[in-house]
Design brief:
Largest sheet of chain B: 8 strands, antiparallel
CATH topology of chain B: Pnp Oxidase, Chain A
Number of helices of chain B: 3
CATH architecture of chain B: Roll
Helix content of chain A: 10-25%
Order of helices and strands of chain B: EHEEEEHEEHE
Strand content of chain B: over 45%
Distance between the termini of chain B: 15 Å
Oligomer: heterodimer
CATH superfamily of chain A: Electron Transport, Fmn-binding Protein, Chain A
Number of strands of chain A: 8
Shape of chain B: globular
Number of domains of chain A: 1
Structural class of chain B: alpha+beta
CATH class of chain B: Mainly Beta
CATH superfamily of chain B: Electron Transport, Fmn-binding Protein, Chain A
Chain lengths: 150, 142
C-alpha cells in the first residue's frame, strides 16, 4: 500500500513524524511545517472578529518567515491595522488513501510597509477578488505546528 | 436569468440553499475557535445531520474543552488556482455535544470518517448555526 503514495505529489509523500498527539495523529516537526508552508498557495486565515472566530481563504506566499497576501479593505485589513493575532491553516487530504496533513501557523498581522509592498508587488500574490485597490498584509510566523494521519 | 449578487470585493454571494448543498457535498471542513484569546483552525471530517454540521471529537480532548458550548466557525472550500475559480462557505455558530442516546445511534450510522485511531473513544459535536454565508470567485472572463 505504501507504494501508491510514492507516486503521489510532494504533498502526499510520507512526512517525517516526531511523536503523536492525544488523537493518535503524527506530529510534524517545525522545519517540515515551514517547508509545507513554502509550497502552499491557498490557505485559510483565522481571525477573532469581536471575539468570534472567522475563517477567510487567502492566496498567500511565504517570504522570509512571513506569510504575505493581498486583501481588500475588510476584516483582514482591519485586523492587520490593529496588529491582531491570526493563524493560517493549510492542509492536504486523500480520503481514499486515508492520508493527509495539516499545518497551522500563528503570528501577528500587519499592513506591509511601502518598501516591502513594492517587493511583493513583483511576486505572484494574486487576491481572489481581482480588485486593484487591495493592500499587502503580512502575518509574521511565530508558531508553527503540524499533524499528519498515518 | 438572475443577476449575480456581488460583495464589496467582487465575489459572488451564494444563497443559503447553495451553501447547504456545498456543505453536504464536502467531506473535510475546518473548525475555527478562540483558544485563550487566539484564533485556531483545525481540519475535521464533517457530515450533515438534520440540517446541521456534525463531526466527532475525543471526549476530554483539548479540542473538546476549547469548543464546547462556545462560538465556533466551520469553513469548507474548493479551489482551482490555475483556472482562478473556487468557492468557500462559512458557518458561524455554537458547538454542542450530542448526548441523547438515540441521536448518537443515528449519527453513528452516518458515513463520517474519523482520523483518530479507532481505539480512541469519540463524541459527536453538532454545530448550532446562527449564520451561513458563502462566496464564489467569479471567472475573469465574465
Amino acid at each position: 500500500m505504501n507504494g501508491a503514495a510514492q507516486h503521489g505529489t510532494w504533498s502526499s509523500l510520507p512526512l517525517p513524524i516526531d511523536g503523536s498527539d492525544e488523537h493518535g495523529l503524527g506530529l510534524i516537526d517545525e522545519a517540515t511545517c515551514v517547508r509545507l508552508l513554502s509550497h502552499g498557495h491557498i490557505g485559510r486565515l483565522g481571525l477573532s472578529v469581536g471575539s468570534l472566530p472567522v475563517v477567510l481563504p487567502v492566496n498567500y506566499l511565504l517570504q522570509d518567515h512571513t506569510i504575505v497576501f493581498r486583501s481588500e479593505d475588510g476584516d483582514k485589513t482591519r485586523a492587520a491595522e490593529l496588529g491582531s493575532v491570526a493563524c493560517l491553516e493549510i492542509d492536504h487530504f486523500d480520503l481514499f488513501e486515508h492520508s493527509g496533513w495539516s499545518v497551522l501557523a500563528t503570528g501577528r498581522l500587519s499592513i506591509a510597509p511601502n518598501d516591502r509592498a513594492a517587493v511583493y508587488d513583483r511576486l505572484p500574490v494574486v487576491p481572489w477578488a481581482l480588485q486593484q485597490s487591495s493592500r499587502f498584509v503580512e502575518l509574521s510566523v511565530e508558531l508553527v505546528s503540524g499533524r499528519s494521519i498515518r | 436569468m438572475t443577476e449575480l449578487q456581488l460583495d464589496h470585493a467582487g465575489l459572488e454571494i451564494l444563497n443559503p440553499a447553495e451553501c447547504r448543498e456545498l456543505l453536504a457535498s464536502t467531506a473535510v471542513g475546518r473548525i475555527a475557535f478562540i483558544d485563550r484569546g487566539d484564533p485556531v483552525i483545525l481540519p475535521v471530517t464533517i457530515g450533515m445531520w438534520e440540517g446541521a454540521v456534525v463531526f466527532t471529537t475525543a471526549p476530554g480532548s483539548k479540542l473538546e474543552a476549547a469548543i464546547m458550548n462556545r462560538p465556533v466557525a466551520i469553513e469548507v472550500d474548493d479551489w482551482d488556482a490555475e483556472r482562478h475559480v473556487g468557492w468557500s462557505v462559512l458557518v458561524k455558530g455554537m458547538a454542542m455535544i450530542v448526548d441523547d442516546g438515540r441521536e448518537i445511534d443515528s449519527l453513528d450510522r452516518l458515513s463520517v470518517k474519523s482520523w483518530s485511531r479507532p481505539e480512541i473513544p469519540k463524541a459527536w459535536v453538532r454545530i448550532v448555526a446562527n449564520e451561513i454565508t458563502g462566496r464564489r470567485v467569479v471567472p475573469i472572463s465574465r
